[in-house]
Amino acid sequence: MKTINLSLASKVMLSIVGLLFIVSLFLPLWRIELDAPQYPEGLTLQLHANKIGGDVDIINGLNHYIGMATLHTENFFEFKILPYIFGAFALIAFALIFINRRKAVFGFLITFVLFVAISGIDFYRWNYEYGHNLDPNAAIIVPGMAYQPPLLGFKQLLNFGAYSIPDTGGWLLTIAGLLLAVIVWLEYKYKKTT
């Protein structure tokens, strides 16, 4: 049975995918922006592959009053493993150039989609626990109120508007996923005719 190799365009796109995974290691992946009248400049929480950044100390101070747990990088195992996952994805993208098989690229695309789905579920779980497991002895208690940030989009939390959106690294990962999908589509579409 004849094996079908990848086109040069697909190999170039795979090299770009590998570079996008590497660059995303050094940029914030996700951000939660908080807007309120008392903070006209806004507050930002940024999630990197290996740490929490942004206005963490101010947000922790505010959250203490409503009984939310403080955020610390060392409390999340995800920050220990994500750099290795992204590094592995970059190596796989580069290796696929030499493996030179469209089925292998399709398998990588499926793996990446599963990773995104699992990450979304984990982020939702993290947000849920953070917004619902409140200290019953907090200074400010609003009966029935939970402070779960949105997974994606906007949510009003008392006098704060919370926006949860991808940051630069997250958009680069989105582009990487789209490029993988384009490679698979092109390879299967054009190889059918040959």
What are the defining features of this structure?
5 helices, 5 strands, alpha+beta, 54% helix
Explain the overall architecture.
The protein is of the alpha+beta class and 194 residues long. It has one domain (8-192). 54% of the residues lie in helices and 16% in strands. It contains 5 helices and 5 strands. The chain is elongated and about 65 Å long.
Put the structure in a nutshell.
This protein is an alpha+beta fold and about 190 residues long.
User: Counting H and I runs of at least 4 residues, what is the number of helices?
Assistant: 5
- Average pLDDT level: 92
Q: Outline the biggest β-sheet.
A: 5 strands, antiparallel
Poorly predicted regions: none
- Radius of gyration over C-alpha positions, nearest whole angstrom: 21 Å
Count of domain modules:
1
**Element-level helix/strand string:** HEEEHHHEEH
Strand order of the largest sheet: 3-2-1-5-4
Shape: elongated
- Tell me the span between the first and last alpha carbons: 14 Å
How large a portion of the residues is in β-strands, by DSSP E?
15-25%
Helicity range of the residues? 40-55%
Q: SS-based structural class?
A: alpha+beta
Question: How many beta-strand elements?
Answer: 5
